[in-house]
């Protein structure tokens, strides 16, 4: 004999009727003969699990919050036993009874037909240690070994007295020695609870009282109580403490006293009763005004607009004494900022003319005049010599 397992599946609820026929070859004939037949009837049903409620809500507020428990009822309303696995995420946990300390986030159950079971879902509000108000949304998933999955919504609200700051850093920059400057920030009670707060200064890991002071090196710490008249207050906050109702705002003023050549970084702590401690960074420095101006005189000379110079030169080049040529005697000018600008003006002025002139930049005006004088003197000597020969010839 042999055991056989018959498996079937369906994507919908229905009744399936089939006939299983077994045939085999018997003897030497080599033909198939019917050995047996079995009628198979299968009822495909959906796993019907009733979960109540479909959403669990948790709401806690204040400090030293206890664990909160909510009951969950699972009822198998189908005609089959259900094997299920429940899973959820922290800070929610599964418990057998209210008040039980549990860290279980996964639980397997076998629920018979027409039976039910009670479970407890625990929420731990102290899972987050920052004492900040928050809303946590998770789901409890129920896997039935079936494409169908049931979920339960988990919604939790944790409320602490909290504040919101318009800025977490106050930078006074650099001020003139022995002056005072102020900055303002806005604090808002963003929670649903009343807030009581107070400020303290932190220098390193040491707490300072109202206002932060620097003591003279000559003052002994044992005489601290008598030395406030010799202290230098650097930072101050007003108001140092207060109460805010939900949604209420308040302006807080930070002051920096710029003692001579001081530079200081400080942390101001805002401590909320039954809530978190906030830190703000304070920074300020003071210095004297010192500057040097070099040079003290700027001589721009007599500068003309470039287009005006171009127009003037173009008009000058049209005169009669410029018809035979043009000589540029250097490019230095008091009317332009540089020799390059002078050359640019000259070339633009020449470009406006109908005639072409040769510009000899390598020669100078003095050299030109010297050559002209030499040519005149040479011409004069030649004329006198010729005249002398004529006279001599006449005499002969």
TrEMBL record:
CFAP65-like ninth Ig-like domain span: 164-283
Transmembrane segments: none
GO cellular component: axoneme; motile cilium
Pfam assignment, any one: Ig_CFAP65__9th
GO BP terms in the entry: axonemal central apparatus assembly; cilium movement
InterPro entries the record matches: Hydin-like (IPR033305), Hydin_ADK (IPR033768), Ig-like_fold (IPR013783), Ig_CFAP65-like_9th (IPR056344)
Occurrences of domain Hydin adenylate kinase-like (ranges): 303-331
PANTHER family from the UniProt entry: DLEC1 DELETED IN LUNG AND ESOPHAGEAL CANCER 1, HYDROCEPHALUS-INDUCING PROTEIN HOMOLOG
Name of this chain's protein: Uncharacterized protein
Protein species of origin: Salarias fasciatus
């Amino acid at each position: 004999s042999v055991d056989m397992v018959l498996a079937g599946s369906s994507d919908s609820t229905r009744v399936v009727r089939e006939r299983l026929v077994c045939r085999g070859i018997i003897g030497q004939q080599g033909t198939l003969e019917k050995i047996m037949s079995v009628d198979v009837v299968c009822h495909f049903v959906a796993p019907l699990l009733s979960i109540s409620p479909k959403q669990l809500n948790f709401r806690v507020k204040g400090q030293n919050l206890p664990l909160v428990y909510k009951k969950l009822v699972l009822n198998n309303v189908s005609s089959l036993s259900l094997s299920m696995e429940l899973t959820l995420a922290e800070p929610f946990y599964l418990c057998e009874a209210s008040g039980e300390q549990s860290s279980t986030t996964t639980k397997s159950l076998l629920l018979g037909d027409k039976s039910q079971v009670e479970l407890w879902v625990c929420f731990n509000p102290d899972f987050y240690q920052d004492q900040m108000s928050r809303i946590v949304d998770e789901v409890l998933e129920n896997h039935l070994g079936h494409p169908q999955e049931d979920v339960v919504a988990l919604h939790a609200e944790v409320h602490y007295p909290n504040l919101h700051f318009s800025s977490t850093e106050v930078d006074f920059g650099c001020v003139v020695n022995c002056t005072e400057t102020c900055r303002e920030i806005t604090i808002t009670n963003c929670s649903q609870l009343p807030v009581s707060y107070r400020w303290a200064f932190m220098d390193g890991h040491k707490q300072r009282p109202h206002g932060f002071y620097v003591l003279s090196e000559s003052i002994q710490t044992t005489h601290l109580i008598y030395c406030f008249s010799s202290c230098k207050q650097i930072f101050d906050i007003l108001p140092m403490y207060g109460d805010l109702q939900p949604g209420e705002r308040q302006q807080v003023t930070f002051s920096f006293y710029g003692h001579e050549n001081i530079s200081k970084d400080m942390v101001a702590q805002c401590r909320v009763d039954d809530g978190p401690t906030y830190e703000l960074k304070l920074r300020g420095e003071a210095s004297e005004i010192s500057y040097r101006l070099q040079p003290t005189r700027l001589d721009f000379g007599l500068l003309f607009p470039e287009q005006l110079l171009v127009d003037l030169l173009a008009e000058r080049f049209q005169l009669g004494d410029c018809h035979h040529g043009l000589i540029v005697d250097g490019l230095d000018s008091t009317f332009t900022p540089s020799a390059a600008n002078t050359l640019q003006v000259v070339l633009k002025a020449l470009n406006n003319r109908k005639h072409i002139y040769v510009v000899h930049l390598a020669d100078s005006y003095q050299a030109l005049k010297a050559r002209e004088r030499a040519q005149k003197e040479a011409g004069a000597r030649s004329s006198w010599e010729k005249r002398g020969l004529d006279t001599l010839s006449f005499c002969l």
